[in-house]
Amino acid sequence: MKPIVIMGAMQQELAGLKQALQGLHTVTLGSRQVTTGTWHGHAVVLALSHIGKVAAATTATALIERFDVTEIVFTGVAGGLGAGVNVGDMVVATEFLQHDMDASPLFPQYEVPMYGRAHFPTDVRLTHSLHSAAQAILKNPAQWMDMDVLRELHVQSPQVHQGLVLSGDRFVATSAESKALLQQQPKAMAVEMEGAAVAQVCLDYGVPFAAVRTISDRADDSATTDFNRFIHEVASRYTSALMGTWLSQRTSG
Ligand code: ADE
C-alpha cells in the first residue's frame, strides 16, 4: 500500500496523530525521524518538518525520494490575516505564495525565479476532501474539543475558510506587519512558515499536495501569547480530529 504523507512543523501539532497510528515504525531521513504506521486502514507516514521553508522543503524532498508517496498533506497552525479569520477557525489552502520572495528587479516581486509563477495551487480533489473534513469537525466542535478551553481562548463559533495562504521565514507578530501583508495580498486568509515550500517541491515531483491550518493567532501584537496558548492547549487535538476524520472519510486505502 502506497503511503499518504502527513506533515507538520511542530511536535505539539503532531503529538496526537502519532498516538493514533498503529504498527509504528521509525525511519531516519537525515536528521529527521519519521513515523510510519496505519490509520483507518491507510498507510501513513507522519513527518515532523521543523519550522521554516528550508526545513519543510528538505523534509518533503527526502520523503518523496524515500517513499512511494501518493500525496502530501500539511497540517498545523497559522496566523489569521483575512477579515473574519479568527482564532479556532480552519483555513484550507487553495494556493500558496511566498510573501518574502523578492528577486526584483530581475523577476517580479513574489515570483519564484525559473518557475514563472508566484502562486502554487493545491490539488483540487485533496483540497475538497480536507474542506469537508474541516466542516465536519467544526459543525460540532464540542465532540472533539474541550469547549471550556476554547472559550478561554475566545473561540466562539469556529468557521472553515478556504483561499490563499502566505508562507515566509518570519513569525508575523505585529499588527503593522499583518496589515502590510494584507495590503500587498488582499486575498490572503492566513500566514505560516512552510506550506509554499512544500507546494513547490510537490510541483517539482508531480505529487498532489494540500494543506489545512487551524488559526492559532491573528498575526498581530498578541500573536506570540495567543500562539503559545493555542499550541500547548489545543493544537494537537485539532490536528488529530481533522486528520482522523479526513482519513476515515476516504473510501480506499
Ligand atoms: N504560524 C502560526 N501563527 C503564525 C504567525 N503569526 N506567523 C507565522 N506563522 C505562524
Question: What would you say this structure looks like, in words?
Answer:
By secondary structure, this protein is an alpha/beta fold. It has a domain at 76-251: Nucleoside phosphorylase domain (Rossmann fold, 3-Layer(aba) Sandwich). The protein is built from eight helices and ten strands. It has helices at 11-20, 53-66, 124-139, 147-152, 175-184, 195-205, 223-233, 235-249; strands at 4-8, 22-29, 32-39, 42-48, 71-80, 90-98, 120-121, 160-167, 188-192, 209-217. It has a five-stranded mixed barrel, surrounded by four helices. Helix 5 links the parallel strand 8 and strand 9. Helix 1 (11-20) packs across helix 8 (235-249), helix 2 (53-66) packs parallel to helix 6 (195-205) and helix 3 (124-139) crosses helix 8. The longest helix is centred in the middle third of the chain and has 16 residues, at 124-139. The model has no long low-confidence stretch (mean pLDDT 95). Adenine is lined by residues 77-79, 171-173, 191-193, 216-217, 219, 223, 227. Adenine binds at residues 77-79, 171-173, 191-193, 216-217, 219, 223, 227.
